[in-house]
Amino acid sequence: MLYLHATLVTVNPDRDVILDGAILVKGDKIADIGKSEALIAKHPDEEHVDLTGRIIIPGLITTHMHTAQTLLRGAADDLELVSWLCERVWVMQGNFTAEDGYAAARISIAEMLLTGTTCFLESMFADRYGFDGLCRAVEESGIRGCLGKIVMDIGTYAKDSAWVMHPGLVENREMSLLGALSMHEKWDKKADNRIRVWFGARTPGGVSDGLYKEMTAISKEKNIPITMHCAEVKADREFFAAQDHTPMSYCNSVGLLGPSTVLVHMVHLDDSDIAKLAETGTHVAHCPTSNAKLASGICRLPELLNSGVNVGLGTDGAPCNNTNDLLQEMKLAAIIHKAKSYDPTMINAEQVMEMATINGAKALGLQDSIGSLEVGKKADFVSIDMRKVHLQPYFSAVSAVVYCATGKDVEMVVVDGKVVVKEGKLQTMNEEEVWKEADVRAHQILKRAGLTEKVKGRWPTK
């Protein structure tokens, strides 16, 4: 299939933007790319799609999200972190069934595909959510998923015993670590190689040193990557200080640092931490909306990038963002650091585009196959329809995508050469069926958790 007459934001090594560009897809790969006139001449008999007025970007890659939490969208708004986590999020998640987990995965994936995300890193999928269902949802939908199965053996948060997990979420070494190994054996590289199974370790304080060391040793032996929340809130810094460590000196002491690890949030870092990340090739997932909404702080993104740390972008979960739309996350990532620094040049649109594409691919170890539009790479790309009042005029395709477009402007999504979204409609899932089941199950969970009277707006509903 030949996709013609679009503006191509390639994010290739030269960062070429091709006006009136074309992509030839053969099977699951990009077979040719260039000017439309040239590709039409080279492939005159190829079936084609005219994408005049569109911008094509590489498939977006979110390096941090919680698929289960989409059923909790709006259930914990405007709360401080302890109440948010201990009184709402953990309580609801502790009442999940495997069927709820599958429904949550489906609505999460549906939203990601519709808004241009073609690959995601699930952070901490609990045993009770049904990991098999998550994998089935990835397989059926056509998306790429790097799926972190939770690893833990302590049911509190940081050093505060008051931050106790719901009993329904507590797992031990056998259920979490050994369960992750079992799922890795069963599902890794399945679904036409679109699934990768990761370790999704709990935040330090939720995992014993011994289990961290066992997990990191297995990670190196079996080449299983690791993702973990780290240094998100001030309480995390207090935990590390109580261990006579900074965040990265602690992570280094248990073997967590390295090019197969993605650390999430990373708000409260010292200069020495940033230097250690750069030295070890450890990746960071930046989640500005979550950090802002939960008042966790603002990640030191400019310093990380200037130090050579690879940083991807993540939406986090729906209770601390309310959307899985990475295009919206891109805009905030480009803006929030300007406000903090009083410097409008601090982070630019091109850097954010890199974070959401090729940097994300590097973080997932998939940069040789996805993250940019290049011959030989997987045919993962997104068509954004720019023929709209709110998107015109524009003078830079990258600026227009980062600062103007949202997921609602996504017209077509291709993953592995297959069209999974066409004319803004899902092709692999029944959208109405997905959201209706999610709605029913979310309210059932709320009832089982005993939170029906608490989860509602502040104004009277009549």
TrEMBL record:
Residues 55-420 form the Amidohydrolase-related domain. Keywords: Hydrolase, Metal-binding, Zinc. Residues 21-45 form the Aminodeoxyfutalosine deaminase/Imidazolonepropionase-like composite domain. GO terms for molecular function: deaminase activity; hydrolase activity, acting on carbon-nitrogen (but not peptide) bonds, in cyclic amidines; metal ion binding. Coiled coil: none annotated. CDD domains: ATZ_TRZ_like. This is Atrazine chlorohydrolase/guanine deaminase.
